Amino acid sequence: MSWGFPALSRATLGLARLIVGGAIFLSIGINFANIVGRYVFGAPILWAEEILDYLMVWYVFLGAVLVTWEGRHIKMDLLSVMIRPPWRQVVSALAALVFVAVCCFMIWESWSVVRIAFRLDQRSVAAEIPMGYAHAGVLLGFCGMLLAVLLRFRSYLAMSFGSETEAVQKQVTDTFGTFE
């Protein structure tokens, strides 16, 4: 389902999962350390909240790559599901092309922001990390989403991801089994 690029697909998804998982675990660790520091020792970690915000940007935008791969973005498909073929495919193609265009626009703009932040050596207030790293999560997220849409473009055109209701039911059944 990835137009003959299975290695690229696996690498993209694997890297996104690794970064998202790592960022979430790092966030949990920083948050726990900050709680202990604040309430046990009376000395909070001053940069913790700032870093948690930047980590959240990273795992939200890279998590969006995984959502894009699965075709699970929130859709307003109330009207599109009532359209008859072949017009449904035309609407799906337009939606996929708009998605590609938005990704391209955001990549261009995010690259500009990251480049300027590094060039100006802009740093965060408390942790003093280069802000280019904080903003790079948006850039990488949209690059990954663009790659996911292009690799699964046929699936987006065919609307072969299924309905949200079916996906949620399957996920609940896979996780918890049946309730009979």
Q: In angstroms, what separates the terminal alpha carbons?
A: 35 Å
Radius of gyration: 20 Å
Strand content: under 5%
Poorly predicted parts: none
Estimated helix fraction: over 70%
State mean pLDDT (0 to 100 scale): 89
Question: What is the fold's blueprint, element by element?
Answer:
Blueprint lengths: L5 H34 L8 H23 L16 H33 L11 H21 L1 H6 L5 H13 L4
Describe the structure using short key phrases.
180 residues, mainly alpha, 0% strand, globular
Question: What would you say this structure looks like, in words?
Answer:
The chain is globular and about 65 Å long. Helix 3 packs antiparallel against helix 4. The protein is mainly α and 180 residues long. The two termini are 35 Å apart.
Summarize the structure.
With 180 residues, this protein is an all-alpha fold. Helix content is 72%, strand content 0%.
